[in-house]
Specification:
single chain, 316 residues, mainly alpha, DNA polymerase, domain 1, hpI Integrase, Chain A, 3 domains, 54% helix
């Protein structure tokens, strides 16, 4: 494979490989979203033009270095491992990413471990301590990148600069750094209480996205879909199934011809997530959209499913 590639070039080649191997479009879109929302901003911030596995490892180390990771974080790690493996080998193995353990090394790391042991002696919750360990490991990595190896070299400016580089959970990060340096000061390990540097730190709260759409907004979404081609006909029918009936993506993906009773005007199905059997009305607009898709949008197939979203047993 070509070694010197921008991340966009590598992503495009990787997606082509996915499509050639008939991977699920939903899974492909998931990887593309993670690359664009996580890896690309990281590289832009670091002014890195060309991708290589070291770049991916740096992202994981600085953002996901912890003993326990969430399923979402495992997806992020896997997306980066996939990109690196494809660049190096031209193929992708279907193995799961392993959790990454970040050791707290050096003089500063030992002090961090001492702080975490102190929290254990106070019988703090294990999940809370794990969170502190995560944020401290990120801070340690930041200090190492600045060639800071002893606690005596750390100043308030380093604390402020580190916090300013973080994009996720700044409240938790600020709290951890404050607790750590207050502990060091109270134990007389450092001469000055550096936690005061973050005493008046303020972060800007982002506006929350609405959890629901108004009827007007839903109508705008529906009418924005161009139905001249097969893709548009499919998207419009899928959108109506979600917006008019509230069906989940998993239910839409598994919808079969037997689920629809055209004479009674009903859709009956067992929900994929809950197993609950529900019966819904086959609205006129929805029925017309499905017929339009079946006649002029759906590819010829012997499958009993409507094939709105390809469903495959294998997962990347």
């Amino acid at each position: 494979m070509k070694k010197q590639q921008t991340v966009e070039e590598l992503m495009e080649s990787c997606v082509q490989f996915f499509e050639q191997q008939s991977y699920s479009p939903l899974r492909i879109d998931r990887y593309k979203l993670l690359w664009k929302s996580k890896l690309i901003p990281f590289m832009a911030q670091k002014s890195i033009l060309y991708y290589n596995p070291t770049v991916g490892e740096d992202y994981i180390r600085s953002n996901l270095a912890r003993n326990i990771v969430t399923p979402y974080e495992r997806d992020i790690i896997r997306s980066i491992k996939v990109l690196s493996e494809f660049q190096e080998t031209g193929t992708i193995s279907k193995t799961r990413a392993k959790s990454i353990k970040r050791e707290l090394s050096g003089q500063i790391g030992r002090l961090m471990d001492k702080f975490l042991m102190h929290l254990e002696s106070l019988r703090r919750n294990k999940i809370t301590i794990s969170g502190h360990r995560l944020y401290l490991s990120r801070f340690l990595f930041y200090l190492e990148s600045k060639h800071i190896s002893t606690i005596e070299e750390v100043t308030g400016d380093y604390l402020m600069n580190f916090v300013s580089t973080q994009t996720n959970n700044k409240i938790g990060i600020v709290s951890t750094i404050r607790f750590f340096f207050r502990f060091l000061f109270e134990e007389r390990i450092i001469q000055y209480d550096l936690s005061a540097a973050l005493q008046h730190y303020k972060w800007v709260k982002r506006e929350k996205l609405p959890s629901v759409y108004t009827a007007k907004e839903v109508l705008q979404i529906e009418t924005s879909i161009h139905r001249e081609d097969a893709t548009g006909k499919r998207d419009y029918a899928m959108t109506l199934l979600a917006s008019r009936l509230g069906l989940r993506a998993s239910d839409i993906a598994h919808l079969t011809f037997s689920n629809i009773d055209w004479e009674k005007g009903t859709i009956t199905l067992s929900q994929f997530k809950t197993g609950k059997i529900i019966e819904l009305p086959l609205l006129v607009d929805l029925g017309e959209a499905i017929i339009d898709y079946l006649k002029y949008g759906r590819k010829k197939s012997e499958s009993p499913r409507f094939s709105f979203i390809p469903v495959r047993p294998s997962r990347l």
